[in-house]
Amino acid sequence: MTVKCTRYGTWRVRADREEESPVQPLQVNARSHDGRTVVKLRGELDIANAEDLRQKLTTARQELGEQVVLDLADLEFMDSHGLSVIIHCYKAATAAGGGLTLAAPRPIVRRTLEVTGLTLRMNVTDSLDQALAEPAGAGPA
Fold first, then answer.
1. 26, 43 in Cβ contact below 8 A?
2. 21-133 under CATH 3.40.50.300, yes or no
3. Contact status, residue 27 vs residue 42, Cβ threshold 8 Å
4. Which of 22, 44, 45, 133 is the most buried (most CB within 10 A)?
5. What is the pLDDT of residue 135?
6. Side-chain half-sphere exposure of 84, counting CA atoms within 13 A
7. Residue 20 gets which letter from DSSP?
8. C-alpha closest to that of 39 among 89, 112, 78
9. Contact assessment for residue 39 and residue 29, using Cβ atoms and an 8 Å cutoff
10. How far apart are CA 134 and CA 125, in angstroms?
11. Sign of the C-alpha dihedral, residues 77, 79, 81, 85?
12. Do the Cβ atoms of 96 and 64 come closer than 8 Å?
């Protein structure tokens, strides 16, 4: 048996078969909802995919609008590179007259946002429904 270690976990190679890593790659889905850009993130946001997300958020804002809601309900992990992408999106959206709301972060992601002080500057809601029910551009509570 051969063991190959990478940034994303350990695969055990037996004969010609590999077991899949338990780490979920980041999935990004953007859609328009009542004049807002809703972007759902699923998986883990880290150095390996932060730049790709930054580009996807820029494209989504350009195509769908500057009032952005990031649905974080299925985001399992976020490192400092992910925080950087969120800050970049916030600055770009607000500079263009829009805003950014972070919806339904899991406790581990919410804690990261709180420790870094982002919950004091950005609107964070407990659910996507709550984010969509608030007036566009609502600030932190």
1. yes
2. no
3. yes
4. 45
5. 83
6. 11
7. P
8. 89
9. yes
10. 9
11. positive
12. no
Q: Which two tokens stand for residue 58?
A: 């820029």
Q: What is the pTM of this model?
A: 0.82
Identity (one letter) of the amino acid at 123? N
Structure tokens at 53: 């997300």
- Residue 106 in tokens: 């899991």
Distance of alpha carbon 50 from alpha carbon 11, whole angstroms: 23
Where do runs of H (alpha helix) occur along the chain?
50-64, 80-95, 107-115, 118-121, 128-133
> What strand order describes the sheet that includes 17-18?
2-6, 9-14, 17-18
Provide CB contacts within 8 A for 7, sequence distance 6+. Answer: 48
